[in-house]
Amino acid sequence: MDASAQLRCINPDCRSEFPVTRAVFACGRCGELLDVEYPGLEPVADPAGLQRLFAQRLASGAWAASGSGEQRAIDASGVWRFRELIGFCPDESRLVTIGEGRTILQRADALAERVGFGAGELFLQYEGFNPSGSFKDNGMAGAFTHARMIGASRVLCASTGNTSASLALFAALAGFAAYVLIGSGKIAYGKLSQALDFGARTVQLAGDFDACLRRVQQLGVERPELGIYVMNSINPFRIEGQKAIMFRVMEGLAWEPPDWIVVPGGNLGNCSAFAKAFVEMERAGLIAPGRRPRLAVINAAGARTFDRMVNELGLRWQGGRYDRARVRTELERMDHAGERARTVASAIEIGRPVNLPKALRALEWMDGVVRSVDDETILEHKALIGRHGYSCEPACAAALAGARMLRKAGVIGRGQRTVCIITGHGLKDPDATVKYHTGLDMKSAQESASRTTPGGALANPPVLCADDLDALRRLFAGA
Ligand code: F0G
């Protein structure tokens, strides 16, 4: 653990510092985002030894015999077993874990063949196997640890669904009061049901996700006297936890970096975390200099603010001196025009991504690209992933569709190893799946089964059959 950890403004012309013992999530001087910074992070003497320690912790067993924060429980966490690289909390007894991040990298050869990759070239980091069913649990382990560190008791987020599910679960297990703002749009029921079940006070706002997040910033960041701790990814401790996804990817590849990381982009916290993870792994001597993978961030076509800013407006990080005025005028223009994000991938239906600056930085740090894919393509790739045994919600499929597009265009070269981050479980949004396969919403699909016109090319609608043995025989005989 690094006792010298501090919060630092990412603006190179400001670089203000704040202690990690406070909940400041925007620079008090210039308003920019903050990083958790580790001045003491330097090359470790025995990188292979540290990599072995990360893995041995997982094998130590007897996890349930100890409570949260006790040694064996944190060793079994896919976040805290890498705690040397996430060392902002000097007191290990305060680390919060609910068993997050026990996910492993999966080699997906059969799927690879379907999307233009060779054997051993395509991998899925399947984060649906987290306790709340999405990658958000990685970040919540970090943010709840910080909340506990500073004595917060009430936590709040805006969410398209997964953040709220994860927050509600951590709050229920770690003893916090949880508040959730969701938009009146299309939160997937799998996610809403989790927030309700885990006891979060859930407020449905007459507005979209972007409106909810704006309110959260006003309540939590601009009004510290309310004592509400903000759990969205503007919270740099969320980003710290999400770095662990890349540590596990690296572990799965025996610490040989892949060539590409492909991730769906919404609020752009995840891609920001990934780039920070690689820069810090390099500083710690865990990967060789110059061996960072390239990054591809994939937007949904109906929520492609980042894609547009990078590829049409030409926005670049420029060492931190990105064109802030241009971003401001573009967001104002969107406000004026009443432009709203709209996509079947409800998790990433976000028009004003708050981590835009850090995501620009991530592109610079990882020689990254941004693309977008339309809803139909997302749903076809979701079905393709499902057909190959990995259940995912629509947003995740943007990653595979993006990887395929980049491979086809030759941006991802032949023989390059590519890791797609599958961010959330398919059961989060069963309506999207049923609708794809039957062409109908869930309830009516059950009632009308095969009388419907199936939705997509890989549609697998249920077949209606009389309760009759001969009819069943004919069916199974393929008649
Ligand atoms: N995939 C899933 C399944 C998500 O839930 C999200 C974000 C993303 C990708 C995008 O990640 O925001 O770091 O770029 N969901 C948020 C939420 C916004 O409220 O659950 P990002």
Describe this structure in words.
With 479 residues, the protein is α/β, with parallel strands linked by helices. The chain has helices at residues 47-58, 71-75, 109-114, 136-149, 162-174, 189-197, 209-221, 236-252, 269-283, 305-311, 324-337, 356-365, 375-387, 394-408, 430-438, 442-448, 469-476; strands at residues 6-9, 17-19, 34-37, 105-107, 122-126, 154-159, 177-182, 201-204, 228-230, 260-264, 294-300, 369-373, 418-422. The strands form 3 sheets. Strands 4-5-13-10-11-12 form a 6-stranded mixed β-sheet, sandwiched between helices. Strand 10 (260-264), helix 9 and strand 11 form a beta-alpha-beta unit. Helix 13 (375-387) packs across helix 14. The longest helix is centred in the middle third of the chain and has 17 residues, at 236-252. The termini are far apart. The relative contact order is 0.12. Ligand F0G is lined by residues 134, 159-163, 233, 264-270, 347-348, 393, 395-396, 423-424.
Q: Please give the largest β-sheet.
A: 6 strands, mixed
Poorly predicted spans = none
Alpha-beta classification: alpha/beta
N-C termini distance: 66 Å
One letter per element, helices H and strands E, the order comes to EEEHHEHEHEHEHEHEHEHEHHHEHHEHHH
